[in-house]
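Revision sheet: structure tokens.
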Amino acid sequence: MLTQLSEFSFVHIADVHLGYEQYNLSERRDDFDRAFMEAVDKIMALKPNFVIIAGDLFHHARPLNITLERAIRNFRRLKEANIPVLVVDGSHDAAPNTLTSTILNPLDSAGLIYYLPRHENACWENEYCYVYGIPNFRTRERTEKQLPAFYELKKPTPRKDKFNIFVFHMALDMPEITKFYPRIAAEASPALIPEGFNYYAGGHIHLPLQIQFRNGVLAYSGSTETVSYEDAYAEKGFYYVEVDKRFEVKVSRINIEGTRKFKVVERDCSGLSPHEITELAEKIVREADEEGAVIVPVLKGMLPAGSTRGEIDLARIRGAAEKALAVHPVLLLREEEIPEEIIKSIFEGEIKDLRVKSYEYFLQFFMQRYSREEAEKRARVALDLMQYLVRGDEDKVREVLEGLIK
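Predicted:
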């Protein structure tokens, strides 16, 4: 029976992040839009049977009108070429709540994309292929609770006589993935991913990755532009997947060439004063200065006793470039730690509960940087955040963080 099936191809793309104004720059928003346009140009040339977008198509669930207009223009091109676009939501473009929903819904209603989790049985299929997609639940706790319920409602049912694709957006807790991605941030155990699929199309990991998984291929296509300086070194693009009549898979990497250049320079600044660190960072920026580039000096190490990160002159560092689009200093400098005897005096006592001990620790930490009044305020906020995080109350966490920003 397999020899009667047709050969076909599809594109697997993810983490497009349309509308991301990285570093508050409209130029970076344009970069993400331009990368997607180049991807669509290449897809049109490849002429696949369909396209899979494995989450984070947009950076926000409610994108700006200019971003939405550009996206619609590109989706219309694919629609006119009879190339279906099958999408799941990611951690960024997931519906923020049931009232506002996500922009993926109206795009689906307009026939520009096919938002898999919204449809009956969360699937799309034709005579040779079955594609099943799940929504993103944002946290591991929610995933472990809600994904099995989603499976009950819309059961994954891979077909024995078709090529089966499972589409998702989350980091799986597997050694091959956690060596690139923090294990603590992994959203799901691989045990939650069903068997019976030939290709597992993942999103959320911004680095291209392919491994054998169950009896198929597990792939993350990576991002189409630099989302964080930490993934700046990785190739940007997507996968072009060709499937022959016997379900043999050939995965080709298609790179996007017009991405913004990032120049990431790391330095260990241990033992240097804040003034010396500022001068060193200025020198790094001047040497790396290049037309249109984003320069990221990553400053590491331990500051001398009595020094703080706040004494480093970030404005001087940013102003050292004449040609670069932006300079984004990253301070991974450790300040002098709280003396061990103070920590022991806080946590060794038996009569105080954890809440009181935690408050005292936070207070000691913030008093190294702020007045007692300000330190007390920040310690109370840290304590609130801790208890809301433990409860899994994301709304309260967001409320506290927004209060801090205001």
